[in-house]
Amino acid sequence: MATNTLRQPLSLRLASGTFLAVWCLLAIFPIAWIAVMSIKTPVDAFAGSFVAVLTGPATRAGGQGLSVLDLVLGGAVVIALTRWAFTGLPGIVRRATPAGWIALGWIVAALLYLALFGLVVLGVLPQLLDALDAVAGPLGVPVIGATFEHYYAVWVENAFWRNFVNSLIVTAGVVTVSLFVGTLAGYALARSPSNLAFWLLIAALIFRALPHSVLVAGYLPVFINSSDWLAPIFGEAAPTLYGKPYAVIAVLVAINQPFTIWMLRSFFQNIPTELDEAARVDGCTHFQAFRQVIMPVMWPGVITTGLFSFLLAYNDFLVTSLLLDAQNQTMVPAIASYFNRETTTTDQVEAIAAAVSITAPLFILVMVFQRQIVSGLTAGAVKG
Amino acid sequence: MKPRVFAAFVAPSLLMMLIFIAAPLVSVFGQSFYVTQPVYEQVEVETCTPGFPTANCVTETKSQPVFDAEGRIETRTIFVGLDSYRNLLQLDRVGGYLASGDWGAILNVDFWAALRFTLMFTLITLPIVLVLGLTIALAVNNAVKAIRGPVIFMSLLPFIITPVIGALSIRWLFIGDGILTVALEQLLDRDIAMFAQGWTIELMMYFYRVWHVAPFAFVIFYAGLQTVNQDTLESAIVDGANRWQRLKFVVIPHLGPLITFVALIHLMDAYRVFEEIVGFSSQSHVISLQWLTYDFLQPDDAGNRAISRASASAMLTMIGIVILLIAPVRRAWREHKGVR
């Protein structure tokens, strides 16, 4: 659209540019700010001026800080590693994995990469930089206060890693089960024009609108007393469902189903029906056609829907806080115990460090899967 | 697709939804008419205090819980009809306030306070989200290609952040002498305590929700803007339509279905407002309908959960959802019949 008539006056372009800049600042400021606060001592984190929080004089006075050398060298290593993940890594994965195993290859690669990243950034780099700072003279003197003691306190002393493992179990379970169940239903709904299919979708829409507390009010008494009413089936070994991660997985999968089948249905609708018909002509049953012809071209849709299932399970507060007990608590409800007891400012900064820890995986998720998230958001809306 | 094949494909998903969504709904409806209480028995207890010449003995009847064989408190479930609803709505109190003209006092009853906030929250954030989302989409569409990717990346962050954490991150900017409170104080030259009164907390909640949802509206509208018919736009220019008229008569009608979609999703989600209450710890000032149910479900000091009242408040919350969904479902049904 290069026509001159559509060219905009400078003032309009300027206004729209300024507006975008303000919006971007607004969008990232709260998140970036808690990240900055989490690496300062409480005095700096809750200081009144922007400069004091950013540079952290009290933290620096405590002898903890980053020198110019640390910033330049450490920053360079982190940026190089991140760039390599997007430029070098995909090629290696593609070459090293046999055809058909690409998904598994990526999972292994992601884990190995995380291990490497952790080893370099948390293990080797600090040692190396400490040694270099000692001999670098003025370049080695701390200029910006930074301390990782709150992260250490949260993850090691308060055993936040337990909650992390619980979150991992719940989210992994929810994503796997809801994709498995959802793809089957989504495929059938996309291929059937019957009234039944329509009413199923409408029921799903209504279920999606339900407040989750309504459902939990139904589960709670049943789950707490489950050892009584399951006794006829399981005998003595009848479990109490309350506090069990697998019960929460089942609940979250069900809560997630309406959304999952709507989204998967719209992705399946984009796959031409001629593909099924060709497979059927060649003698496939419906299930074989689904498994061997449709699923291999559905991966983008499955990944996108999986991302949104992950977000729902990972971000959930209400269901997990009511249905899990303290031993099996996931990360998000666990953080409530921090800000409820925030008696000292150190507690508060530890809560902030925990919050940043919870946000970090999501940040990586957006970085890697931005395209899929956008396509998932628009899939439901634009195509009806 | 034959019905049997269809059923086989849908069965697992349907089963999950029936067991974990439909069945709990029915059971919540049932629970709301029953109350489970510990069984109390009347016991005559004679307590004597030493006295002269005779001990002072008082006989009184006390009620105490009955224990079963395993030493657990025995409970009994009784039908109470609409009592839980009455407890929640407190219609006689509300009637009294109405009669005396003291309208504001209705908000002393938790349920009505929660309803007031939930509705206001939903209706106030809706137009702001739509307008802000559309403005960002137009601005990004206007920008050079190179910066669109980074802008979308930054915009997605508030959207995918865990709601409780998002609310907390804004709370930490304002709490006590937080950085933005100090900035505001300097700007307005007065003392500000953002967490001391209800309305400032509410303002932060509106801000948080708009911040959290506007990216969603933006992405949807931005996708819609890519498909605006350029020919129509150009003929509008030939006809002498100015920028504003083109937006009003070409772009916005094109985005119509998307605006309805975003509005519907936002209404559903905002009506469920809950995480804000937790994140801002606002329960002593502002509560929402879903938080009310959540609070009843939390064990109290004695470890009891008010299941019956929670069920009643859950059912009342549902009424709003039903009202909200009648219109879109009817529309979808008409379209479905039209398509076939």
TrEMBL record, chain A:
Key words, A-Z: Cell membrane, Membrane, Transmembrane, Transmembrane helix, Transport
CDD domains with a match to the protein in the record: TM_PBP2
Record InterPro entries: BP-dep_ABC_trans_perm, MetI-like, MetI-like_sf
UniProt GO BP: transmembrane transport
Membrane topology of the entry: Multi-pass membrane protein
A cellular-component GO term for this protein: plasma membrane
Entry keyword annotation includes Transport: yes
Annotated transmembrane regions: 12-36, 66-86, 98-125, 164-189, 196-224, 244-264, 297-314, 351-369
Cellular localization per UniProt: Cell membrane
SUPFAM superfamilies in the cross-refs: MetI-like
Ranges for domain ABC transmembrane type-1: 164-369
Cited Pfam families: BPD_transp_1
Family: Belongs to the binding-protein-dependent transport system permease family.
PANTHER family given in the database record: INNER MEMBRANE ABC TRANSPORTER PERMEASE PROTEIN YCJP, MALTOSE TRANSPORT SYSTEM PERMEASE-RELATED
Protein name stated in the entry: ABC transporter permease
Species the sequence originates in: Roseivivax isoporae LMG 25204
TrEMBL record, chain B:
Main localization of the protein described in the UniProt heading: membrane
InterPro entries: MetI-like, MetI-like_sf
Source organism, top-level taxon: Bacteria
ABC transmembrane type-1 domain boundaries: 115-328
CDD domains: TM_PBP2 (cd06261)
Spans traversing the lipid bilayer: 7-29, 117-140, 152-174, 206-225, 246-268, 306-327
GO cellular component: plasma membrane
Membrane topology designation: Multi-pass membrane protein
Keyword terms, alphabetized: Cell membrane, Membrane, Transmembrane, Transmembrane helix, Transport
Annotated localization: Cell membrane
SUPFAM superfamilies in alphabetical order: MetI-like
Keyword Cell membrane set for record: yes
Biological process terms in GO annotation: transmembrane transport
Identification of the protein by name: ABC transporter permease
